[in-house]
Specification:
Blueprint lengths: L2 H11 L5 E5 L3 H11 L5 H12 L4 H4 L1 E6 L1 H4 L9 H7 L3 E5 L4 E3 L7 E3 L5 H10 L4 E8 L8 H20 L3 E8 L7 H21 L8 E2 L16 H15 L6 E4 L6 H12 L7 E6 L1 H11 L6 H19 L10
Parallel strand pairs: 1-2, 1-10, 2-3, 3-6, 6-7, 7-8, 9-10
Antiparallel strand pairs: 4-5
Helix pairs in contact: 8-9, 9-10, 10-11, 11-12, 11-13, 12-13
Bound molecules: 1,3-dihydroxyacetonephosphate.
1,3-dihydroxyacetonephosphate binds next to helix 12.
Length: 338
């Protein structure tokens, strides 16, 4: 393990003014996104869509520090034969790879899930490194309702995240550890705060037990939000304050940066919340984005699978990327949305 290299990569991923593009939708998830715009999910269409994003200037050079890829994309080349990984590198961003095998039903705990993918991961890591990946992602999902999550679900998922992180670092790949407390549900913001804090505290205990070097890792958490179906929706300042409070109580300052998922928030909410946190004062870590939907929904709709919409799609991606870049500096405002 090369700790200096891991730390350099982690610091590059969370550098001020930039964030991560999560373009690692599994084949099933990207099909759902394409269904939404009436595009068939073929390997070529998936390649065309992602190539268009990775060639977007100046978003890729100025606002994106890293791109999370799905296994297929890590192996794909652009129409002109350039590996997609090379397009990302040329833009100055770090290529990464989603390595988990998805959240699967957990035996004995109806409705709860534990993320699969540890078997054989140690061997797969070396190939990913050779293909150009310098960081990885593993997502765990924690659901909230009156009886969930169970302690077993939180424990099992944090344990798997720690084993994954240790395997990554051994292969000189920075682990993004992603424990996502879902925003689905009718719970209020306090319940989200309680479950998020519980999960993060357990996660950092497991990472410690597995010898994970925090300086060479990145956390990808949910923000602390009201459940989508909760009658009372917390406002931007309340979300920012609750999220920062929860992170300060749970995440060691040795972690270089925290890159949030968007998790189903609107594009503007995801930007406004990140901005409010970064405008709130000095923090122990850089706070940035690692958005999937909140970066891609608008350009995907602008593209709609039509080649003539290429420029409109890239303009839309440039806009969302620059708005989120401003949010990492606490310099965004609704007026700048235009
Ligand atoms: P969203 O921002 O759409 O939640 O996706 C981020 C991600 O990578 C989830 O694993």
């Amino acid at each position: 393990m090369n700790i200096d290299q891991l730390c350099d990569t982690a610091n590059a991923m969370v550098q001020k003014g930039k964030g991560i593009l999560a373009a690692d939708e599994s084949t099933g998830t990207i099909k759902k996104r394409f269904d939404g715009i009436g595009v068939e999910s073929t390997a070529d269409n998936r390649r065309d869509w992602r190539e268009m994003l990775f060639r977007t200037e100046p978003a890729m050079q100025e606002a994106i520090s890293g791109v999370i890829l799905y296994d297929e994309t890590l192996r794909q080349s652009a129409v002109d034969g350039t590996p997609l990984v090379e397009l990302i590198r040329r833009a100055g961003a770090v290529p990464g790879i989603k390595v988990d095998m998805g959240a699967q039903g957990m035996a004995g705990f109806s409705g709860e899930k534990v993320t699969a993918g540890l078997d054989g991961l140690r061997n797969r890591m070396h190939e990913y490194y050779d293909l150009g990946a310098r960081f990885a992602k593993w997502r765990a999902v924690i659901e909230i309702d009156a009886h969930r999550p169970s302690a077993a679900c939180v424990t099992a998922n944090c344990h798997a995240l720690a084993r994954y992180a240790a395997i990554c670092q051994e292969a000189n790949i920075v682990p993004i550890v992603e424990p996502e407390v879902l925003m689905d549900g009718a719970h209020d913001i306090n319940r989200c705060a309680e479950v998020t804090e519980w999960t993060l505290k357990h996660l950092y205990m497991e990472l410690f037990m597995h010898g994970v070097v925090l300086e060479g890792s990145v956390l990808k958490p949910n923000m602390v939000l009201s459940g989508k179906k909760c009658a009372t929706q917390a406002g931007v300042e309340e979300v920012a304050a609750a999220t920062v409070k929860c992170l300060k109580a749970s995440v060691p300052g040795a972690v270089p940066g925290i890159a949030f998922l968007s998790g189903g928030q609107s594009d503007i909410d995801a930007t406004a919340h990140l901005n409010a946190m970064n405008a709130s004062g000095e923090l122990p870590w850089n706070l940035t984005f690692s958005y999937g939907r909140a970066l891609q929904a608008a350009p995907l709709a602008a593209w709609s699978g039509k080649p003539e919409n290429h420029d409109a799609c890239q303009a839309s991606f440039n806009h969302r990327a620059s708005m989120n870049s401003l949010a990492t500096l606490g310099q965004w405002s609704a007026q700048k949305e235009g």
